[in-house]
Amino acid sequence: xxxxxxxxxxxxxxxxxxxxxxxxxxxxxxxxxxxxxxxxxxxxxxxxxxxxxxxxxxxxxxxxxxxxxxxxxxxxxxxxxxxxxxxxxxxxxxxxxxxxxxxxxxxxxxxxxxxxxxxxxxxxxxxxxxxxxxxxxxxxxxxxxxxxxxxxxxxxxxxxxxxxxxxxxxxxxxxxxxxxxxxxxxxxxxxxxxxxxxxxxxxxxxxxxxxxxxxxxxxxxxxxxxxxxxxxxxxxxxxxxxxxxxxxxxxxxxxxxxxxxxxxxxxxxxxxxxxxxxxxxxxxxxxxxxxxxxxxxxxxxxxxxxxxxxxxxxxxxxxxxxxxxxxxxxxxxxxx
Length: 336
Ligand SMILES: Nc1nc2c(ncn2[C@@H]2O[C@H](COP(=O)(O)OP(=O)(O)OP(=O)(O)O)[C@@H](O)[C@H]2O)c(=O)[nH]1
Ligand SMILES: C[S@@+](CC[C@H](N)C(=O)[O-])C[C@H]1O[C@@H](n2cnc3c(N)ncnc32)[C@H](O)[C@@H]1O
Ligand code: SF4
Ligand code: SF4
What we know:
Strand 5, helix 6 and strand 6 form a beta-alpha-beta unit. 31% of the residues lie in helices and 18% in strands. The two termini are 31 Å apart. It contains 11 helices and 12 strands. By secondary structure, the chain is of the alpha/beta class. The relative contact order is 0.16. It has one domain: Aldolase class I (TIM Barrel, Alpha-Beta Barrel), CATH 3.20.20. The chain binds guanosine-5'-triphosphate, S-adenosylmethionine and iron/sulfur cluster (2 copies). Keywords: 4Fe-4S, GTP-binding, Iron, Iron-sulfur, Lyase, Metal-binding, Molybdenum cofactor biosynthesis, Nucleotide-binding, S-adenosyl-L-methionine. It is an enzyme of class 4 (lyase). Pfam families: Mob_synth_C, Radical_SAM. Its EC number is 4.1.99.22.
């Protein structure tokens, strides 16, 4: 089989696949989903075997990091079967990292099995430590359940990073509480600037936007921040807080575009490949997969063709007091 690595038109090697395994979720975070969501019929979804074939094709083309996402990846039926199958690529050395981004609600059930499948580090999305605010932002989630999930993950030996979307008038007041919570539990913490995805009106989006430049200044009033050069293969830039030794990540699509070092593409649960989170360009990989059940040549040709159309970057911009670059699809569609 042909194994030339995937290089996009801007000479960026593509080594990171984010794979969404479901569009469903047990939460309805207001910045991500509509309150009333219509989910895809099951027959539209790639089967676990098809997800395996897709991921394996990308790994054969040089992808070294596989992040499973969604919707909520741990609500996909039998998802452990997929993780267990993917561990063969860790064993063979083809894959450096098998991981997931999760809302944490199902972790108490799955943490041990994920470790057995070779997962070492997970990202858990948590924006607030206040149970009422948590219920408000997720529209249905239970903070206690997520906390139990975090306990189980750490007991099972998983390294945990918390992802918090920075939201003005929501978790601004919890900057230090979240920092201290993570320091006490030896978790890294990454802040994300809210991106204009989904149906939210521009005005509401602008109202909730908390630039990480501001967040950083506020953090520096209490801690000494040292920039780190190390990277996790994702878009975050890291700083160390000298007083606690912990690492804080900053994902800044709005205030500091990181597209020049982009190394990733995203596959939806229906087999569409989005070449950029912030653009509509996509390629249907389900047809070449299903039309040729015993031969990956057409699939690989379709992947190469898609990568040859990868855009340079997103067009998100709030600077004109408008949510420019708005994408009507929900973040859960491509897995963030
Ligand atoms: N604009 C943009 N945002 C991204 C991209 N990748 C991740 N993000 C944002 O960062 C969030 C957190 O990403 P994670 O799922 O934790 O993955 P990661 O940051 O690659 O994780 P690490 O491996 O820990 O670096 C996503 O949900 C998105 O909101 C990207 O390519 N472009
Ligand atoms: C779409 S979720 C999928 C995985 C899982 N359900 C979770 O919440 O971790 C992935 C990430 O996208 C982030 N996200 C969702 N909508 C966003 C938005 N509008 N701007 C920035 N990040 C967003 C979430 O906070 C989460 O960290
Ligand atoms: S951010 Fe994650 S948990 Fe929240 S609604 Fe989106 S997919 Fe679900
Ligand atoms: S916005 Fe697009 S080009 Fe920029 S880092 Fe994300 S996926 Fe890559």
